[in-house]
Amino acid sequence: METPYLTKRELCEYLKVSRWVIERLMREGLPHFPLGRRVLFKREDVDSWLKKKKLVK
């Protein structure tokens, strides 16, 4: 069963991009939240944000 939350590494694999791209997207407003020293991303929020930004179909 897939978790609805992704780590930065998992998000890189999910989107097939580098960590630097994720960092840039975070500065541009990609929804995320810190959990201690980690950053988590809700898969559903990431998908809708990317669609809104027209970065994916």
Structure description:
The protein is of the alpha+beta class and 57 residues long. It has one domain (5-52). 47% of the residues lie in helices and 19% in strands. The protein has helices at 8-15, 19-27, 43-52, and strands at residues 5-7, 33-35, 38-42. The protein is globular. The termini are far apart.
What is the average of the pLDDT values? 92
Please give the share of residues in helix. 40-55%
Distance between the ends: 25 Å
Shape: globular
Could you give the topology of this structure?
Layout: E1 5-7, H1 8-15, H2 19-27, E2 33-35, E3 38-42, H3 43-52
Antiparallel strand pairs: 1-3, 2-3
Give descriptors for this structure:
3 strands, globular, 3-stranded antiparallel sheet, 57 residues, 47% helix, alpha+beta
Summed up:
With 57 residues, this protein is an alpha+beta fold.
